[in-house]
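WARN no homologs supplied; continuing
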Amino acid sequence: MISIRNISLFGGLFSIVVIALGAWTRLVDAGLGCPDWPGCYGFVTFPTTEEEIAIAESRFPTFPYEIDKAIPEVVHRYFAASLGLVAIALVFIAIRQKVENSLKYLSIFLLFFICCQGLFGYLTVSLLLLPIIVTGHLFGGFITLSLFFFIFLKAANFKFMHYINIEKYKYLALGCLIVLLVQIFLGAWTSTNYASLACPDFPTCQGSFSPEMDFESGFNLKQEVGPNYLFGLLDNPARVAIHYSHRVTALLLTAIMIILIACLWFTNAAPLASTLGLVLLLQISLGIMNVVYVLPLYIAIAHNLVAAMLLLVTLLINYLAFKR
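OK structure emitted
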């Protein structure tokens, strides 16, 4: 029998796939691989024959057709749409099986949120990669994953949760979660503004620990996109400000997470502490490798996925800390 626990677990795993596909689409600069929505150059999937390509380019003469860009965009769209079907199934099961109201309302909110994500997907294309919209869309993917995971935890109600008492560290755990969410948003903002390689060296940035930075332009949420925002329009000091902020927040996050790990180590949540430490170490390593090896595609995608893992572990710790 399909239960809300099983479908939410499947939805969480599927969300991770969608996050990976979104990162792939972004990293290969395929955000405008299809200049229309929900179709692609007016086709249900994407043009493949010479005749279809000619029709596509006649429809959108300012967007030359590139199949290498169209494929990631279409694949990402269809997987994201499928995630919406999973959310519909979750609501249907929650209502039919008459689960507790909190789970029912969470499932309905999740479906509403995924619909909003679809709207952001449309706006991403129609507003030509406007940074604040793209960042919101990327960040929303992590929120979607969090909602599926939270529903899964409430529905599963594992026995081990009843024996772990870390309530006295709940505000420390909450602080970690807040800083992590800020860091994820900054990571999305860094990617959206093509600032991932603004600092090509490590641990310095542009050969200095205090490079020239333009925070006003870098964090201007009302940027103009010009013809479109593909490859970005910011000057280098603005991109450096974005990238440097991401690095500094990473240091802050590392410090506060080390404190949390040390506190949990002497409780019966020590396995969670070690898991958090390992995932944090992996994420730091991937971030450094992105800089040193000039943003390799698979390492950059892994950086997104491990950020999702870090979020899930931190959410679990918060869930246990606030459960009483």
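The chain has ten helices and no strands.
OK
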